[in-house]
Amino acid sequence: MVSQLDWRERSGRLRKLRKARGWTLRDVARVLGVTEATISRCERGLQEASGELESAWTHLLTGRRPQGVTAETPRRRPRGLFSALAEIFLADARAGMSRDTAGWRDLAHLGLASGESLGSEPGIESDSLGRIRISPDSTLASVRQARELMDFRVSVQREIRQLDAALPVVATRLSEVMAEAPSAAAVVLAGIARMLATTARVLEVPDQLLARDSALVGTNPGAAADAALSAVGIAVPESVPSVAQWFGLPPFRPGLEKLELDETVRAAGRLFIPTHAERLGRNGLTCLGAAWVFVEAVEARSKGALSVEGERRLGDVFWEVINGSAIMSRDTLLEAWIKLIDGEQISWEEELGRLLWLWPEAL
């Protein structure tokens, strides 16, 4: 019999192997036909596994017999074979395996005699190597969960491929236009306008006058955005080409009557849009506008970033452009954003106006 210290070392290795495969205590316990508590106690060195259990356990995780242990793999059918196979399929899915490769196990891994024929049973598949698994089309909850996970992983991979194709094009174009003050100003105007068009459309305002102001901003966001830029000293020359053409974005509605434009500017003032722009600062407003154009330009060429990995890539590329343009750091922007969002409330109207300011969710 090996010493308790030796067992603690071996059980620690088994625990690391289990975690590396993405398996839970429950996964291992159900396959080996023991309780979850038994596996937990053994892993923590509080209980030493029998030679038979250790042999099956090590074989399950590594495909090899533990050194110094000669006991045969237990030849008993685990409790609830279908459930155990379903849990294995889910564990493999969590470990990153595909629909074609997940779930396959030798009979010995499952504590079954090599001569047992299970591949012909409904819901169980077998291969030429003598392995079995639960059918990937099974209706068991664990298998359904595994399929959802695999489908999500495939969708993320598809999303990443689309982003990888779109990001370099958009990033290069944004770097080019941000290098010149006139074109950079046009980007900021377009981005802030698109932000206001988005937020004003969903803002719920109980006050009748402010509801009309919000509607005006949503109808003609370009005029409201221009009021924000003017507050921090950013002017957009009339000769600058359309940002929509640069980035392939859908244009806003054509120009309105001057009376309506002037009224939109007054509405922006009542919603404290210029005041909020001043709090954010010139560089902060520039980053915000560039961010909205960047995200919408990427979405025009792909489905955008829907996953955590996609958002991470989107954010990394955007901040490479901003850092390359020497506008401001992410930390400095965060400080300015907190100053805008968490600043002392002066009036209800100003607090309402803050709801129109939104950092792109994907970034």
Report the helical percentage.
55-70%
What is the number of independent domains?
2
Structural class by helix and strand composition? mainly alpha
* Number of β-strand runs: 2
Radius of gyration equals 30 Å
Count of alpha and pi helical runs:
16
Shape: elongated
| Span of the ends, CA to CA | 58 Å
Order of helices and strands: HHHHHEEHHHHHHHHHHH
**Strand portion:** under 5%
**Order of strands, widest sheet:** 1-2
The residue ranges in which pLDDT falls below 50 over 5 or more consecutive positions are 68-79
Main sheet record: 2 strands, antiparallel
Average per-residue pLDDT, rounded, comes to 81
Describe the secondary-structure layout.
Blueprint: H1 4-20, H2 25-32, H3 36-43, H4 51-62, H5 81-94, E1 124-126, E2 132-134, H6 141-178, H7 181-202, H8 208-219, H9 221-231, H10 243-247, H11 258-270, H12 273-280, H13 282-301, H14 308-324, H15 330-341, H16 348-354
Antiparallel strand pairs: 1-2
